What does this fold into?
Amino acid sequence: MRSVRKAAVCLFLAVERVLTAQIPLSPDYPEESLDFYSHFERDPRQWDLDEPHAVNATGNLVFETANSLLQHWANTRLRIGHTIVPGIVPVGTILYHGAITGPHIPTALDWVAMEPEHSMVFCRGSVETGCWHATFAVTRPMKVLYFDGNSAAKIPEGTMDTQDLRIQDLCKWGLQNGINGLVRMEVNFEIMICNFTSHMEVVSFSNLDSPRLAIDNITDQPEYSNTAHHTFEIMHSTSWRENYPGETRIILDYSALISFYDTDLVPSLVPRRVGLERWDHRVAGISPEDIERVEDRLAQVLERPPVTASAAWT
Ligand SMILES: *[C@@H]1O[C@H](CO)[C@@H](O)[C@H](O)[C@H]1NC(C)=O
Ligand SMILES: *[C@@H]1O[C@H](CO)[C@@H](O)[C@H](O)[C@H]1NC(C)=O
Ligand SMILES: *[C@@H]1O[C@H](CO)[C@@H](O)[C@H](O)[C@H]1NC(C)=O
It folds into this structure.
């Protein structure tokens, strides 16, 4: 990771130098302009972009994941997350919850969706009673932790590895560290909220016509089922976050990004990745020492005041 950072700084300096010196990017470099490149291990005239990167190198993976955070497609394709990033959900953000258990607003750990099309799927009730759907507004900047990948998909292939490290304790530990939400991605982005009353207020709690989805039994009441309609709506809402800039209502602190591809922080995963394609990389199998190091790093970055851009540059 240190060498990655060093390379990034060098690259930035090189670009800045090239821009300020107005040197054209052609293969015919004036000899004196090449002195600058003596910082690099290799002369740029000898870069071969077709050459595969070094075995075990992960710098490319760190950059690629950082470049695709909170974007739905990249995290569906490469669904086993390797990144944890703190962030903020700003005041005024509207969040949604469909109640499975009747007219009860959650008080303890439960989820909210970023889109009502997503939460409506969980608005359950009989045709007679209808179902209950809550809308919340964030009233204080809410600190969250984002787990990348398809991190809420309940499948056995490792999408929950980074949370499985200590899932039961995650909220307890989070609340002690000022974290009130865990951002994950299922069919769309959602936030597991640790305390529903500390950072949000109820805007509405509506008794709606039950969407009558055939989730548990697709042969059930086909004549009343709105399943196809809702499936389309949820896929459509997901498509808004498919690519860059992704889910912009969660503002990440990139300076606090923790990557399981950081080979200084998590050396135990290096041998486990040998010979595997990127989508087969797992975090399961990490050593207890490395887990401890990741937790220490997380505690360290959470102690600092968050560094988030004051303007949306996208
Ligand atoms: C949740 O937040 C409220 C308001 O800040 C607080 O009174 C309550 O004790 C919190 N509950 C837990 C379990 O921390
Ligand atoms: C599914 O619904 C159909 C039609 O209502 C019913 O005949 C069948 O027994 C149900 N199956 C299950 C597993 O509930
Ligand atoms: C890659 O990592 C494996 C496992 O740690 C190691 O045995 C191998 O020598 C490494 N290869 C290179 C080229 O560094």
Notes: The first helix runs from residue 2 to 21. Residues 7-25 have pLDDT under 50 and may be disordered. Residues 59-302 form one domain.
